[in-house]
Amino acid sequence: MRVALFITCVNDTLFPGTGKAVVSLLRRLGCEVDFPAAQTCCGQMHVNTGYRTEGVRLARHFTEVFAGYDAVVAPSGSCAAMVREQYPKLAKPGSRGAAAIAEVAPKVYELSEFLIDVLKVDDVGAYFPHRVTYHPTCHSLRGLHLGDRPLRLLRNVRGLELVPLPGAEECCGFGGTFAVKNPAISAAMGADKTRNILDTGAEVLCAADNSCLMHIGGTLGRQRAGVRTMHLAEILASTEEAQ
């Protein structure tokens, strides 16, 4: 398959290792992976804060950049949900923009969706000998309805001990601009999440969105908790040779 990597803003600027992990993993599974250099922000921040015109412009650019690929894979449930759920609402019915979105948006997948639903694989040959707990981020859980897809992948990683996270479906408190507008509430929610993480005894917290991991990881770091945060892609890309 000819697959495009949609890196997303947070990963491009702060977590480039996640993008590298996605490319390594997909190539290992036989995919031809491209990185369209013209890609930009998907417009989620703009639309969520009322800047609809900018969101429409970015949606139009996204469909131009990613047209023609068999699939577009994003290491972010949040940004994949933006394209699939919000883009169709931005375009005028019957317009060229609506047609372009209808063509591209259904081909945009969060990583675990692509592996399970498109490649039909739940064992990617990974090796990660650590105790791990998984946090289902809000957009991946409630927007994309990923269900147990990430857990199925993690359970098949050799050496990995997967432990359940109490209150897993509760928001971590990041919510993009929510954390900026409501810092006290965001911090309190983050504290609840980290307390549950520590109760698991896990060495590593895994999620499908680095934005949420950044928020939780900041709280864990201030507490000197000794728990690492890792994106799902980085665990799945790990092999015995790389340890």
TrEMBL record:
Instruction: Write down the Pfam families for this protein, in alphabetical order.
Output: CCG
Q: What is the lineage of its organism?
A: Bacteria, Bacillati, Actinomycetota, Actinomycetes, Streptosporangiales
Q: What is this protein called?
A: (Fe-S)-binding protein
Q: What positions does the domain Cysteine-rich occupy?
A: 3-83, 132-216
* Organism the protein comes from: Nonomuraea salmonea
